[in-house]
Amino acid sequence: MRRWFRRWFTPARSPVLPSLQAYQQWASAYPPHAHNALMQAEERAMRSLLPTLSGSTILDLACGTGRYALIARQLGAGRVIALDNSEAMLRVSSLIGAACATTEAIPLASQSVDGIICGLALGHLPRLEPTFQEMGRVLKPGGWLLLSDVHPFIFLNGAQRTFQAADGRTYAVEHYPHLIADYHTAGQAVGLSLEALAEPGLQAGVVAPVTSTVPVALVLRWRKNE
Predict the structure, then answer these.
(1) Which helix (DSSP H) or strand (DSSP E) does residue 84 occupy?
(2) Domain span at residue 177?
(3) DSSP string, 133-188
(4) Do 140 and 113 contact (CB within 8 A), yes or no?
């Protein structure tokens, strides 16, 4: 655990890879569950803000190896659609029927899903607006969007989002810190009203150079205007 936090929270710089190239290398070692303390903090907050899923059509956007698609199915979603732009991540997932697509061109009809879950993905994008336009388009009126990102404070203080590749080298994935105001503005522009927000910290007792009071993730929930 200490090694993982040293990679995340110190100013040492690792070579930065474009997200597709990074996940091509990372996929084989990327399990479909929260596999580090930051992800565990993020998932606790996501679950606390997750609406009832029973019978709903849910989109897991930027699903990766399928963590939130699997959770949505376990919680009784009627239909779960999983999309990601990394074929490597989809190949190692256990998801049936997952498709390759970007967040900026969602291959679904307008007003076709009840809810969207998007976990720890949009920080890889330099601009939020095209993705929010698509998410707003496919959501039904009254539908919801639950989204998480690594907290911008971490990156604005010099940390990187890193992983260890099969060659033993540590690489960083491209990441762009988006502030709460950036997310709020992007959602408001497409008819989404922000209704809940969480900034979870690490659990007490985790060995890390930050205390449990320092936010490590940003979790937001919107509702599409009727």
Answers:
(1) strand 79-84
(2) 2-224
(3) HHHHHHEEEEEEEEEEEE-HHHHHTT---EEE-TTS-EEEE------HHHHHHHHH
(4) yes
Any idea what the CATH number is for the domain that residue 141 is in?
A: 3.40.50.150
Total number of domains in the chain: 1
Of residues 11 and 90, more confidently modeled: 90
Q: Specify burial of residue 64 (Cβ count, 10 A radius: 0-12, 13-18, 19+).
A: buried
Give 95-154 pLDDT, tens digit per residue: 989 999 999 999 999 999 999 999 999 999 999 999 999 999 999 999 999 999 999 988
- What are the distances in angstroms from CA 56 to CA 17, 135, 139, 213? 36, 16, 12, 35
- Token output for 107: 């291959």
Instruction: Determine contact, residues 184/30, Cβ cutoff 8 Å.
Output: no
Q: Amino acid letter at 35?
A: H
Predicted model pTM = 0.91
Sheet holding 99-100, edge to edge: 99-100, 79-84, 57-61, 113-118, 139-150, 217-224, 192-198
Q: Which pLDDT value is given to residue 33?
A: 93
Evaluate the CA torsion angle 30, 34, 35, 41 in order and state its sign.
Answer: positive
Taking only the tens place, the pLDDT of each residue in 8-39 is: 444 557 899 999 999 999 999 999 999 888 99
Q: d(Cα 68, Cα 66) in Å, to the nearest integer?
A: 6
Q: Bridge partners of 95?
A: none
